[in-house]
Fold these 2 entries.
Entry 1:
Amino acid sequence: MRNFQVIDLGRLDWQSAWSVQREFVEKRKAGLVPDTLLFVEHPHVITLGRNAQESNILAGREFLTGLGVSIEETNRGGDVTYHGPGQLVGYPIFDLSEWKKDVRAFVQALEQAVIRTLAGYGIEAGTREGKETGVYVGNAKICALGIHISRWVSCHGFALNLNPDLRYFEYIVPCGLTLPVTSMAAQGVPAERGEVMRMLARHLAEIFELDYSTCIEQLEETLP
């Protein structure tokens, strides 16, 4: 099995986390690091994917700035998303040439890792048919997903709602879909961040056939 490392960046603004991602992407392309999963929690930020429609930001920029919400353009796929406190963001920096050179299979694998994690908490979740990415509980999105692939190395990833203030999603049309948004807390499940990280990392390791044992000690050192 291939090596695997998991790093918790803690609370970090989007631009700083993007710099870390780019650094790991270049190292992964050069074979200097193994497949790496970065976890982070962002301060309030709205991100725009390559296909984003400005009209999907429903509040004015001055109003959002007053609330402490920044707006960032990204090179990931997808439309408009929100990140903030209480949300667990995962950035897998994986070399797909060592797994499957299949972008859709990669997206589905990320979704399955989230679905398995939620199932461990008794939350029945799934995906929607068609081209819509992400994980849903009923018709409410609980996890958004958007990626970028360069020379088969991935970046960006998924954002799982643990217990964010869901009112912030009212300022956007999440992912361009007029659907409700939910969280683990809204489903009656108080989830501890470190435990969810461990479960997600384990499920991703299983799906991508990575050696989870190589990162257990690292996780235990950094997580409560």
Note: The longest strand covers residues 140-150.
Entry 2:
Amino acid sequence: MIEKKKPVICFTLCYGIVAMVSLVWCSLTLAPVWAAPEKTYVGSEACQECHEGEYKSFKTYAKKAHSYESIATMKKGLNEAEFRTCFECHTTGFGQPGGFQSLQDTPHLKNAGCEVCHGPGSLHIESEDPGDLNEDLTAKDCETCHSSERVAAFDYRPLIHGGAH
């Protein structure tokens, strides 16, 4: 009787190990298919090739295309923590994965660029699908930075899409 149970136990154990190895192998090889690709920030210069007119207009007329200069001039009167709070609106992706970190590490994200409004552009650059970006912008999208408190504090007069492109 004991002899008859050993093959059953051995078979069950072997089957269990094979099933476990198969499950691990499948999860490792198929994980990228299940997981959505991560969007990352690429900087406004990456948009220039396909959106030349918009890029030129943005760089020429939009104050935010040179927004780091605004906070750099104010740095003298601020401590480091106060200065870093300026990054939230005057740089691209600050506080987000892959966003602005410092002038040394992420100089291509030092100004508030295209991706501040349209979101990280890596997937759009690969796919050229406009659906990979935030296309339908409203005034509500601008209020992340252009809140009533900031508008009053900096005497800013908001214009929807004014000078953006």
Note: The mean pLDDT is 81.
